[in-house]
Amino acid sequence: MTFPFILNVTVFLTGAAVLVLEIIATRLLAPYFGNTIFSISSILSVVLAALSVGYLAGGKLADRNPSRKLFFTIIWISGAAVLLVRIISSFFLLHWFAPLGSIMGPLVASAFLFFAPSFLLGMLSPFAIRLKMDASRARGIGANTGEIFFYSTAGSIAGSLATGFILVPTIGVADIVSGTGIVLFALGLAGALGGSMRRMVLIIIVSAAAAFGLFRMGEMPLHANEIFAHDGLYERISVVDNAPNFSGKRTLFLDRSPSTSIFLSDASPNATIYAEYLALDRGVAPAPRRILVLGGGAYAVPRYARMLYPESFIDVVEIEPRLRDIAKDFFSLEDDERMTHYVADARAFLRQHDTAYDIIFVDVYSSFLSIPTHLTTEEFFELLRTRLAADGIVLMNVAGSLGDGLNGFLRAEARTFKSVFPGFVLFALQGPDVPGPQNFVFAAAKNDGDIGVAENMDAGGPFLNAIQKLRVPQERLSLDGAVLLTDDFAPVDYLIAPLVALY
Prior knowledge:
By secondary structure, the protein is α/β, with parallel strands linked by helices. The chain has helices spanning 3-33, 37-64, 68-97, 101-122, 124-135, 141-170, 173-193, 197-217, 300-308, 323-330, 346-352, 378-386, 408-420, 457-460, 462-466, 474-477, 492-500, and strands at 226-231, 236-241, 249-254, 257-263, 290-294, 313-318, 339-343, 357-362, 388-400, 425-428, 438-445.
C-alpha cells in the first residue's frame, strides 16, 4: 500500500473519531447534567475551540518537523487521551463535576474531559496536508488539501451515522469511548512503530490487553443498590431496590432521576403516588373506554389504570424501546390483550393517531435533567385537547416547586396549560405549603370547566376527599409575568436550572 492511500484511510478514521467523541460526549454527560441546551452548547464550544487551536498548532508543528512518525505519535497519544476520558468519567464525574450544577458543570466537565483529545485530533488535518504535499507534490496544494478535507469530512459523516444508528443502540456509552480510544491508540502505534511483523504483533497484544481491561472495568453505578443498569437510546436506565428515600420500593431511575416505583412487598404500583390521580375520572364521567398513557416508564400508571378500569382499552406510548421489557422483567408488567404498546415520541404519536380518549395521562417529564421541550408548549397542549373525547380529561405529572426562585418552570407550565385548559386544577403531592421540589398533577376537562373534584367527592370515594388539602389555589401560582411556552420560545432549561442545582 502506498503512503498516500494509508494517509487517506488514517484521515478518514480520525475524522470519524472526532464525531463519535463529540456525539457520545452528550450521552456521557447526560446522567449528571441532562440533555440540556447548556450541555450541548458546552460540548460544541469546547470541541470547536480545541479543534481550532489544534489546527493552528498542528500546522506550525508540521512545518517544523514534517515527520510521519510524529504524525502517528500524535494519533496514539490522542487515543491514550480518549482512554483517559473513559477512566475519569467513570470515577470522577459524579463527585467532581456534578456538584457544579447544570449551567457551569457541563462547561467545566467538557473542558476537562474533551479539550485534550479534540486538540490532538485537530492537529492532524494540517499535518496530513503537509505530509500529502511531501508525498504528492505533482498534484498541487489545492488537490491535496481538497482530498484531505474530503476524507476527513467523509469520516465525520460515517462516525456520526455509525454512532446514532449502530453504536448507541447496540453498545454501552463507556464501551464506545473505550473502543474509540483503542482504535486511535492502535492506529497511531502501528504507524509510529512501522510495519514489521514483530511490531504489529506487539501492537495487537497491547491493544487487546487494553480492550480487555477497559471493557471489564465497567462503569461506576449511579445509584446504590442497583440491580440492573443499561444505556438506553435516550438516557441511562437503572433499576434500584431500597434507594435512599425509596425504602421498601423498587424504583426505575432515568439518569439520576427517579421515574416510577412499585412496592417490593407485593409489586403493587401504588408506590407511584401520582398514578392514583387516575381515580379523578371516577367522579367526573362514566367508566372510560379508552385511556392513553404518554410515557410508560416502569408501567406503574398503565398497571394502576388497569386496576381501576379493568374493561378499558389502554394505549401506552414510550419512546425508550427497552423500557417495556424492563417493566416485564423487574416491575411485574404482564401481557394484556387490552393494552397496546407503541415505541414513539408522544407528540408524533398524537399527530399520527386521531383516536378520541376518555383519559390522557401525560407522564413524559421523566427527569429534572432532561425535560422534552416540545412536550411543554402551548401547541402540544392544543394537540392533546384535540385527542380528548367530549367528556375526556387530561392528567399530567410535572416535577417543580412553589418556592420563590424555584418556581419558574412550574409557573410557565401552569400559564401555558391554562391557555388551552382554562379550568384546570393543580395538586401538589406533598402539599401546597411545601416550598421545595415535589411532584404536581395538572388535571383538566376538555369542556374547559373545572373537572368537578369538589362537586364529585362522594362519587369518587375517599381518595377525592383526601386530595382536597393538596389542591393548589390559583392565586398561589401568581401567573402574572410567567413565561408562555411555545414552539418558538420555550427556555425550559433556563427555567428548570435552579431546581437542578438542588439535586
